[in-house]
Amino acid sequence: MPEPADGTPSDALQQAAVELIGAARSFLDAAEAVVRDPGTLRSMAGGVTGMLKVMGEAFLAAPGRAGTATGAPPAPGDPPVERIDLG
Question: Average pLDDT of 26-46?
C-alpha cells in the first residue's frame, strides 16, 4: 500500500477510498462471474453446505458434549460439561 503524499488526513482518506474502490471492483467481478454462470453459485453453495455439515457433525461428536451426532444421550461415565467463569 503506497504511503500518503504528505501524511495529511485527506491524503490518507483518499488512499482508503481508492482501495475501497478496488475492493468493490473485485467484488463486482466475482458477482458478474456468478451471474454469467449460475453453475458457479451452485458449486460454491454445495461446497459451503458440505463444509457446514462436516462442522456440525464434528461439533455434535465432540468429547464432553451432552449428546452425540445421533442425538443419543451421553454414555455413562462421560465427563460433565466444564463451566468456565469469564467474568
Answer: 86
Residues 6 or more apart whose CB falls under 8 angstroms from that of 4 comprise 11, 12, 14, 15
Pairwise pLDDT comparison (72 vs 62), residue with the higher score: 62
Rg of the Cα atoms in the chain: 24
| HSE-CB of 10 using CA atoms within 13 angstroms | 0
Is 11 in contact with 5 (CB distance < 8 Å)? yes
Residue 39 CA: distances (Å) to CA of 35, 36, 44, 83 = 9, 9, 9, 45
